[in-house]
Amino acid sequence: MTSHQHLVIMAGGIGSRFWPMSSVERPKQFLDILGCGRTMLQLTVDRFEGIVPASNIWVVTSEHYADIVREQLPDVPADNVLLEPCMRGTAPCICYASWKIKKRDPRATIVVAPSDHNIKDVSHFGQCIGECLEFAAETDAIVTLGIKPNFPATGYGYIKADLSYSSSRKRNIYAVDSFKEKPELAVAQQYVAQPNFFWNAGIFVWSVTTIVNAFRVYAPKISSIFEGLLPYYDTPEEKSKIAELFPQCETISVDYAIMEHAEDVFVRPADFGWNDLGTWRSLHGELPHDAYNNAVVGEGVKLFESSDCMIHVAPGRKVIVQGLEGYIVVEKEDALLICKMSEEQRIGLFQKN
């Protein structure tokens, strides 16, 4: 850990697929989804302990969630919580944080991570991040983590690596051949059968000089907005300037804006038990199961003649489930969801009707 290593956590999503637990008022990154006593945001910070100083942790989130972030992360400086007046995708989010960090620390090396992923092997994760930080600090490279796939996922993007070309500085960091969009099942099956395809976890490592130069070249309109705000960062005028100019940014992901165009992009293959926890089904796969493959969060739950279910209830609630197979049952305050796990992609539609 050095004073020039920084972490940027993207925490602006609304987590609509985790209804009814997740809501616009308090999305999933601010909830204890795993039932472990820590929210997803807090767990994200926890796994960077010893890698990045607390003073160098940054959170980019909606202005509506400022109080929640400060409540859950009291050790993160209040000035390091960057507030978006509207949603514009990950590219403007990262550009804003990068230019602000550059003003404070021109020698910074940055890890960018989502706030809602689960990682089981935190020790191996830290090792991988440390290698990437060292590599990014020594080069002009952009580094991303590639997760070894264990099934043909159609909900993730993929990274095709050139395994014949590894870095001379880090033998387990390889050149990226190309990025692949979320595939159809048949294509995903082809990817998984090849050793050089990895899931794109959306975790990036780069020097601040490398990333701001990449924005200048590949997303100049976005870059010009945040570079033009350099005189206002850490001043009383910053908030009003962001409110005025942030909405002018194109809505675009960093993958489309930067990663698919940049040169010197590398991937560090990894297998540390990663899951982006995007659905109730994915949470079911992360939790302990009983003898009938049921996963339960909530001490007052009793199951009878039920199997392959995901049950999540509020603390102190008593719930009895009988005769269900392959269902999601989620209870929170004044809302109750009972849905076939195979139909969970329709939860958003059910809410609207």
Strand order of the largest sheet: 6-9-7-8-10
Strand content: 25-35%
Largest sheet: 5 strands, mixed, barrel
Low-confidence stretches: none
Shape: globular
What average pLDDT do the residues reach? 93
Distance, first to last CA: 51 Å
Radius of gyration: 21 Å
Structural class: alpha/beta
The count of strands amounts to 17
Total count of helical runs of at least 4 residues: 11
Measured as a percent range, the helix fraction is: 25-40%
The string of secondary-structure elements, in order, is EHEHEHEEHEEEHEHHHHEEHEEEEEEH
Textual characterization of the structure:
This protein is α/β, with parallel strands linked by helices and 353 residues long. The protein is built from eleven helices and 17 strands. The chain has helices at 40-46, 66-72, 90-104, 122-138, 185-192, 208-218, 220-227, 238-245, 254-259, 280-286, 347-352; strands spanning 5-10, 57-62, 81-84, 109-114, 118-119, 142-147, 158-166, 174-180, 197-207, 265-270, 274-275, 295-297, 301-304, 310-312, 319-322, 327-332, 335-340. The protein has a five-stranded mixed beta barrel with strand order 6-9-7-8-10. A hairpin with a 7-residue loop joins β7 and β8 (174-180). α3 crosses α6. The longest helix is centred in the middle third of the chain and has 17 residues, at 122-138.
What would the keywords be for this entry?
353 residues, alpha/beta, five-stranded mixed barrel, four-stranded mixed sheet, 11 helices, 17 strands, 28% helix
Give a quick precis of the structure.
The protein is α/β, with parallel strands linked by helices.
Helix-strand blueprint:
Blueprint: E1 5-10, H1 40-46, E2 57-62, H2 66-72, E3 81-84, H3 90-104, E4 109-114, E5 118-119, H4 122-138, E6 142-147, E7 158-166, E8 174-180, H5 185-192, E9 197-207, H6 208-218, H7 220-227, H8 238-245, H9 254-259, E10 265-270, E11 274-275, H10 280-286, E12 295-297, E13 301-304, E14 310-312, E15 319-322, E16 327-332, E17 335-340, H11 347-352
Parallel strand pairs: 1-2, 1-4, 2-3, 6-10, 12-14, 13-15, 14-16
Antiparallel strand pairs: 4-9, 5-11, 6-9, 7-8, 7-9, 8-10, 16-17
